[in-house]
Structure formats: C-alpha cells, structure tokens
Amino acid sequence: MKTSINNEAHWHELRKNRIGASECAALFGQHEYIDLFSLYHRILSGKVQDENDAMWWGKKEESLIAEYATEKLGMNLSKVTDYYYLEDVNLGASPDYVDQDGQFVQIKSTTQRYESDNLPMYIESQLQQEMLCTGTKTIICLVKYADRRVIAYHRDFNEAFCKELIQRAKDFFVMLEARDEPSVTLKSAALAKQLYLYSEDKKEIDKRFDEDFALQVSQLKSLRAQSRDLEKQISVLDASIKQQIEDAEIVLYGTEGVLTAKTQVENHKAREATTVTKRIIRIKGE
Q1: Domain 2-182 maps to which CATH number in 3.90.320.10, 3.30.540.10, 3.40.630.10, 3.30.450.20?
Q2: Which one of 18, 105, 118, 258 counts the least CB within 10 Å of its CB?
Q3: Is residue 48's pLDDT more than 80?
Q4: Model-level pTM?
C-alpha cells in the first residue's frame, strides 16, 4: 500500500505507529543507534525523534549526492513523494529517490574512508524493508565515503530475511500490546537522552535505571581512564626493560648469569673472526 506524503508533518504522522525501514535492524539487535527498548518507547509514545545535527547534515548531503549521481553517474533521480506500508503488519518505508527506470534509490553518507562489499546491517535491513514495502525486487544504495567517492550498491530482495523481519515485527507489536517492556541494555542507557524525547514524564524514565546510575557511569569512565594510563605506563616500562636487556651484556637471575642476545651475537662474530684468521694463517703456511 502507498499514500502520498503531503508535507513533513504528514510524513511523521504516517511513521509514528510503524517501524520504519531505518529502524528495523533494532528487531535483530543489530542497529547502530537503537535497541528494542528505545524502539518500544518510541512507538508507545507515538512520537518520532526530533531532528538532530546528524539528521540535518544527512538531509543536506542527500540532495548533493543525488545531484552528483545525476551529473557524474548518468542517473536521473526524482524525489519519492509516497509513503509505502504493509497492511497486515506495521512496517513502513519511504525510499529517498526513484531513477529513470523506476528503481528506488536510497542515499547514505559515511565517515569511513574505504568502501566495502558489505554494508552495515542496519543499512542492509533498511534496503530489504524498503523492497518489502514497495513490492520491488531490486534497489540501489548510493553511499558517499569520506574521500568524497560515491559508490552504487545494487541489492536484490531476500525473501527469507523479509519473512523473518515480518515475524519479528509481529512479535514486537504483540509485546507492545501486552505492555511487556523489553529489558534495558547498555545501548539504551547510553541513549538515555534519546529516551527522554519519547516520554512526557522524564522522572518515570529516570526510575528505569538504578538510583546511582549516573555515579556508575562516572566511575566507569574514571576506571577506563585509569586503565588507559596504566596501559601506557606498562608499555613504557616494558619497552625500557627490553631495551636494557638488549643493551646489557649479562642479566643476572639469582646466582646465574644469562647471556643476552647482544652478547651472543658479539660472541658469534668474534668466533667467526677467529676462524677466518686461522684459515688465512693456514693458507699462508701452505
């Protein structure tokens, strides 16, 4: 099914009670930013995330990448103005563009410098959901890398993956209907600020964490900093000891003297020199 998008507010209204293509990796625990807990509260509240700096820059770069694809890659792209969704399960999608052949095109930018044949799971799953909702069998993903190259990735519809996606989505909404809240994960805790966006009562969200949650986070940061400092000290001492052993002639362990690599090499060279001298004397004697 599809419906025309009147404006951005209408687009948000269509999305608020559905799992969007850019969110579905959370159903597999493979999303870069969100997990089931944050997705649960996002849909339960009926809100969508406010635009942040990353999203703002993403929109700006999207149009530039589309312009690049038109001028440099010979693609004729048109902005998609429809929202696609499934009737029997709350999954939706709105690809970025459609090309001259009617093929949908998704645009991404990344800070990675070098391309890879495999895209991150949260992008691969997004492409699959977009094909699922639009009823298409192929899709193109244009990715701009940090060195400003744009690579076109072609993907085919994966029926087995989409069947699993549909089942996980159905299970998720059963859990949502029963108010069976998913467990808080470390990712949820790290995104506590994001969770606040989906709740009118911030105190209620606060109670989901231990009372000393902020203290725990502070202690963890402190311990990690100490750990890094200790690693640096260990590295310096290790290098110093190795250098001293290499430079020393004899290292004493208890009452035994152990020849170091340097001493052994010098002794070996001395033996070679002695052998060569004896050979020269022998030859002269002959």
Answers
A1: 3.90.320.10
A2: 118
A3: no
A4: 0.65
